[in-house]
Design goal:
heterodimer, A: Jelly Rolls, 16 helices, 38% helix, elongated, B: Glutaredoxin, 6-stranded mixed sheet
């Protein structure tokens, strides 16, 4: 009975599919037949303009991001063969991702029928036809596409791109005149020079690291690595590629912009043949509504990439299993010149495989953020996986090394990368926390590969040693952290901060004597260094010397009354010497400074403990 | 046979040079149409093959004002010009798009620092004669006005949207070296990538 039912079902499905397919083909045939049989040539006004207006005009309009307009017959005719060749090879429109169920936001890929129509138009002499057939051109408002921004910023000075040479990647740091926390619901990038600006990657740096790198380069912007502290804010993509404006975020999904942050804008520019001024502007749109949900950017990809010369199909894979349910909003594959394919899949707990993205003709020029028109939920236990394929042979014209050479992971365009960024939106903050805890060690362990690679190349870069040492501390690997801070101290022995960092890592590694020596060294370079006094006090406290500890903590607080850590430590030292009343007083002084978590809860625990001890 | 032929041509040229101080190149000895005239930027009709005394070859660079690939080659065209103009090679920019006015072309030459005198080819007469179909594309004519090279400037562009980070073959330069050395150009044609001259026909 069941067998018969299955058989029937299979038959029925097959039948339905066969019929549907036949109808579809017949339909396509009819369309062709209509045009051909009527002996009426394909015309611009009736047949071509609707395609150009819908798929090409978003960039190809006067003042748009493409080099010429396709809004009129007069501007289109002199490029008819170019349009034919560019669409036939799918160079244009630049949409590399295969279609997905539900579609992509802003998808501009042409259908085979549309491409065929354009070819026939050109082959038939690219005639105009009856202007009365022309649909009304799309209304493209000049200026900002998302409305009037609340804040518009630009780099302090324009950059002059030379006329010749290959692609240029450069990072511009723009301080934001924002003196309190704001919530951002939209960000629009305007290149200011569509001839040369090919794409922009935008991050936010809450520290001064990016600004320092920019200031160290005498010209506008800087040529170098993106600082670790420059991040996608709250798991939001802020990239721009021609024709792709990030939409205004839905209510409750704004991202938090800390006061006095910097925008870090990496521009990919292509020389035009003459020197060009580049001065982009960025519009920010604020809201008073804080986010209700916050996404997390899941980065899949290996930094151990190491491709032998001549290897035509080097594959890198990575995966992560979701510890909570998430909505998947968008993906962005990122790779350089030698990549050929990018794939992403989600394997659900029931074994169903959902394809997240497939690009079979990777072109590093088109680093789109691909947004799902219908975001979907992936349940806890889903395995996210990526696979990138690279061609490091001489047969790959994009290979920058001719003859091919060994290539390894690196941020610079001559190196390789292969990352799939997945924007995952958990249901609530508790789930976000679970997801972050599960994901962070994985991504940090991968970052370590990348840093060790960069340090191999730049062994005297102090910032690289400091960064990777911090990562090792976060990963609970203090001995490696000590090794890198030691390298940093050797390179920069006159820096008090470096000795302080090394001392701190040595404390974590349990090497208190050495730690003490480096804190003392930091204090001899910078007398009255409150953090060093505080940490030195902690060492005395650990050794049971409450008196010396108290002396150091009091001195740290005298020099910096708002040092919460020193106040909390003072309380510990006072409690250790039996003075719970004074300890409670110190804790309360610290709590008044409204410290962030987890310090705040730690203070509350201290207070409870001392109150119990005092009354005992 | 080939050796004898080459000597004959050499002798002939030497004789011609003596006879005419105006043109070391010999317009009427090969296929250049004697009646082909193109407007320069002052709308004077000129013979595109006319060169200064002593010119050993002439290069036509077919370009257009708004073609991105054509424009991106400006620095390379300048480089090749600066390397070979002192060695007796004449350069002409040829604009086959009739919609590009003398004023637009003047601004274009200035903005992109393009080399050589500019001619307009509004009916694509020279493009048709040279069989050039793309901007940017180069055609080299030797001292006997024989076309010895037609095609790309270098191999940086493989096709539309497929570009090498740097060229691996410098076809125009190699062809000029061979032409000046009096040897055969090993690859006399190479497909150019860019905008289509056919689209400029009215």
């Amino acid at each position: 009975m069941i067998g018969a039912f299955t058989g029937f079902g299979a038959f029925a499905r097959f039948g339905a599919f066969a019929r549907f397919d036949a109808v579809a083909r017949f339909g396509a045939f009819l369309l062709v037949a209509t045009v051909a049989n009527a002996q009426s040539p394909v015309t611009f006004s009736r047949d071509v303009a609707p395609i150009l207006f819908a798929r090409c005009a978003p960039c190809h309009h006067p003042g748009g991001s493409a080099p010429f307009s396709l809004l009129t017959y007069e501007s289109t005719k002199p490029r008819a063969s170019l349009i034919s060749a560019a669409t036939r090879t799918r160079f244009m429109p630049p949409w590399k991702a295969e279609p997905v169920p539900g579609g992509w936001v802003g998808q501009s890929r042409l259908s085979d029928a549309e491409i065929g129509l354009l070819q026939r138009w050109v082959d038939g002499g690219a005639v105009e036809g009856d202007p009365r057939d022309l649909p009304s051109p799309p209304r493209i408002a000049p200026g900002w596409q998302l409305g009037k921004p609340d804040l518009v910023v630009s780099p302090a000075q324009a950059f002059t791109l030379p006329g010749g040479g290959t692609d240029v990647f450069r990072i511009f740091v723009i301080p934001l005149p924002v003196d309190r926390v704001r919530y951002v619901r939209g960000l629009e990038f305007r290149s200011g020079n569509p001839r040369v600006v090919h794409h922009a990657n935008i991050r936010v740096d809450k520290t001064r690291a990016s600004r320092r790198a920019d200031e160290a380069d005498p010209e506008a912007g800087y040529d170098g690595l993106i600082s670790r502290s420059a991040m996608y804010p709250d798991g939001h993509f802020l990239g721009w590629t021609p024709g792709q404006a990030a939409p205004i975020l839905p209510r409750g999904l704004a991202w938090r912009l800390e006061a006095n942050s910097d925008l870090v804008v990496e521009l990919h520019m292509q020389p035009s043949g003459k020197p060009e001024e580049v001065e982009p502007s960025i519009g920010l749109f604020f809201t008073d509504d804080p986010p209700e949900r916050t996404p997390l950017m899941l980065r899949l990809g290996r930094q151990s990439i190491d491709i032998p010369p001549g290897e035509a199909r080097y594959t890198t894979t990575d995966a992560f299993v979701l510890p909570v349910d998430v909505d998947v909003v968008a993906v962005q594959p990122h790779a350089h010149y030698r990549a050929r394919e990018a794939h992403g899949t989600a394997t659900l707990p029931d074994g169903t495989v959902r394809r997240l993205i497939d690009i079979t003709d990777w072109d590093f020029r088109w680093q789109h953020v691909y947004r799902y028109a219908a975001p979907f939920t992936l349940p806890k236990g889903t395995r996210l996986a990526m696979q990138f394929v690279f061609d490091n042979s001489a047969g790959n014209p994009r290979n920058p090394d001719q003859p091919p050479a060994r290539v390894r992971w690196g941020q610079r365009s001559r190196d390789e990368m292969g990352d799939l960024w997945i924007q995952a939106l958990p249901k609530n903050d508790a789930d976000l926390d679970t997801l972050e805890r599960a994901f962070r060690p994985k991504v940090l362990a991968e970052d370590v590969f990348g840093y060790e690679r960069e340090i191999e190349r730049e062994p005297t870069d102090v910032a690289l040693h400091d960064d990777v040492a911090q990562i090792y501390l976060q990963l609970g690997r203090p001995f490696e952290a000590v090794a890198h801070f030691e390298a940093s101290a050797r390179l920069n022995p006159a820096s008090a901060a470096t000795h302080f960092n090394l001392g701190t890592a040595l404390v974590v590694a349990g090497r208190l004597d050495q730690a003490q020596a480096h804190f003392n060294e930091a204090l001899s370079i910078r007398p009255g260094y409150p953090q060093a006094l505080n940490n030195l006090g902690s060492i005395f406290l650990q050794r049971g010397d409450a008196g010396e500890a108290l002396r150091h903590f009091r001195e740290a607080i005298r020099l910096e009354p708002a040092n919460v850590e020193a106040l909390a430590n003072l309380a510990r030292a006072l409690a250790a010497s039996g003075d719970f009343t004074a300890a409670m007083d110190a804790v309360q002084r610290a709590a008044k400074l409204a410290p962030p978590e987890p310090l705040a809860s730690s203070l509350r625990e201290q207070l409870t403990l001392y109150r119990q001890r005092r009354t005992r | 046979m080939g050796e004898g032929m080459r000597r004959l041509i050499t002798l002939f040229c030497a004789a011609f040079a003596l006879a005419s101080a105006l043109a070391a190149r010999a317009p009427e000895t090969a296929g250049a149409p004697s009646d082909l005239r193109l407007p320069d930027l002052d709308n004077h009709l000129v013979d595109p093959f006319q060169t200064a005394p002593g010119a050993k070859a002439i290069v036509f660079l077919f370009v257009s004002v708004e073609c991105p690939i054509s424009n991106r080659y400006a620095p390379e065209m300048r480089r090749v010009h600066d390397a070979f103009a002192p060695r007796g090679v004449a350069f002409r920019l040829v604009y086959p798009n009739p919609a590009e006015s003398p004023a637009m072309i003047r601004a274009h030459v200035k903005d992109y620092n393009l080399p050589g005198g500019a001619l307009r080819d509004p009916k694509q007469a020279l493009a048709t004669f040279a069989q050039a179909t793309i901007t940017p594309e180069a055609a080299i004519y030797d001292v006997l006005n024989r076309r010895v090279y037609l095609g790309r400037i270098d191999d940086r562009y493989v096709s539309l949207g497929l570009e090498r980070p740097a060229a691996t073959r410098h076809d125009l330069q190699d062809a000029l070296v061979a032409t000046l050395a009096g040897t055969r150009v090993s690859a006399p044609t190479a497909p150019a990538v860019g905008c289509y001259i056919a689209d400029f026909a009215r």
